[in-house]
């Protein structure tokens, strides 16, 4: 495989923030209230957000698996570059990943914060840190997602504009609207969609950020599988809300990325939305200039890591905005076997499909990134 290396851009990855990041960038009284984790034994950790805590399980061993599920390698620790940007770039080079979207890790829990001032100040501080300490290390390769204060639409608009001013290209929104706000299909969010379109900022929804305890909704036999699948639905709902409410129609230059949720759901959801629009037209508000599926296909991009059906969503079902993602450094990601996985997924497809999935769709969203080595 070294003689046939597939260079790919990744539509989904994460960085592990420094353990003391909040105390580096915020006053102590605020930093003490920000999300943090601590180990409880060998395979469980405690997550605390502004005084509220909950436990979540952690695996003892990270298992690297191929696209067909076979074990390739096992690691008892995170990849070397999980926190260190220089080591991260070495990891990416070894895996054949050139540019990548980077979501927070502990920062994803910030959607649980209920204090508007706290999240407003935290987002401002973190986004400046992301621009200067993360993206600046490799601006043609790293695309960190800006943290957003979502308890107030005005705060969200102001921070999106600030993130664009400091040079970021992507904002991270929770798939579920925060407590105390209206759902994403409500007109109250219109200023945010308009601001994102005007600034050229991609709106990113990472699955599993609905705000509920998705990791333990189901118990008993099969619970782990059921809970894992459950996390994908929030991204689908977020995309549907922006289509059905007319937000994407009103903002044709707005681009949405649903990360880690697969791609083959888009054709199915598009067909289902079209059927509702046609067959239940008497109930549909607002009317749209085109069928819903057309907005999904044109303005919504998706990333997957192992899904065998994802390439077919493009070559068999016409959905062009499919991009691969490594999910580095998470255990469901491809670290340690990215090349094997990529070959299994795209060796049998047409060259133009392979190019689109591994690089083209990503470059369409983030044209500032450089091209991989020839």
Describe this structure in words.
It is built from 14 helices and 13 strands. The protein is 37% helix and 16% strand. The longest helix is centred in the middle third of the chain and has 19 residues, at 116-134. An eight-stranded parallel beta sheet has the order 1-7-8-9-10-11-12-13, with helices on both faces. A three-stranded antiparallel beta sheet has the order 2-3-4, with no helix packed on it. The two termini are 15 Å apart. The model has no long low-confidence stretch (mean pLDDT 92).
Task: Itemize the secondary structure elements and their pairings.
Elements (H helix, E strand, L loop, with lengths): L7 E3 L10 H5 L2 H4 L4 E4 L4 E6 L2 E6 L4 E4 L5 E5 L9 H11 L1 E6 L13 H19 L7 E5 L6 H13 L4 E4 L16 H10 L2 E5 L16 H8 L2 H12 L2 H4 L5 E4 L5 H15 L12 H8 E5 L5 H6 L6 E3 L13 H9 L4 H15 L9
Parallel strand pairs: 1-7, 7-8, 8-9, 9-10, 10-11, 11-12, 12-13
Antiparallel strand pairs: 2-3, 3-4, 5-6
